[in-house]
Specification:
With 176 residues, the chain is mainly α. It is 79% helix and 0% strand. The longest helix has 34 residues, at 57-90. GO terms for molecular function: DNA binding; sigma factor activity.
Length: 176
């Protein structure tokens, strides 16, 4: 049963019934009212895209809490990346500091790369990072990962394919 397409009043009821509860839940987790309001809004946007299949209050709250938990994790990861980037910037001379617009673009790009890497299997991610960040040759990567060189090539091909698919999705060329 698709609640949104079935009746907009059902979505309105879901929002009206659970918004305050969700906002309090998020405020306790994040300890910040503005972030809690943003994530509550994002949670209901996700509900619009994929409504719950059941209509009882317990399942609705569980569904909303699950979505909100994932958004909190994304929020915290994003903050960690942003803090790491700001610490790196603090070490640079003022003349070499990027503009606020460039900073926002860089943080968004870092977040997208982190999300892409998180979706890769562990060995594929490790091989990719060793090759791209550390410039290690296949032989050294194979030794470190305790696999043959052929597997390293396979891992890197898998990672590059994943990057290409992600880029196509971001460019709007692929539709889910």
């Amino acid at each position: 049963m698709n609640i949104v397409s079935t009746s907009p009043t059902l979505f309105s009821h879901l929002y009206g019934t659970h918004h305050s509860w969700l906002l309090r839940l998020l405020h306790r987790r994040l300890n910040n009212g503005w972030d809690a309001a943003d994530l509550a809004h994002d949670t209901f946007i996700r509900v619009l895209k994929r409504p719950p299949q059941t209509a009882d209050e317990v399942h609705e709250r569980s569904y909303l809490a699950t979505i909100a938990r994932g958004l909190c994790i994304d929020h915290w990861r994003r903050r960690q990346l942003e803090q790491a980037w700001l610490q790196t910037l603090a070490a640079r001379p003022e003349a070499l500091q990027p503009s606020p617009e460039q900073r926002a673009i860089i943080v968004e790009t870092l977040y997208e790369v982190d999300a892409m890497l998180a979706r890769l299997p562990n060995k594929v991610r490790e091989a990719f990072l060793l090759a791209q960040l550390h410039g290690m040759p296949y032989k050294q990567i194979a030794a470190q990962l305790e696999v043959c060189e052929r597997m390293v090539k396979k891992y890197l091909a898998q990672a590059l394919l994943h990057c290409a698919v992600l880029e196509a999705e971001l460019d709007g060329l692929l539709v889910e």
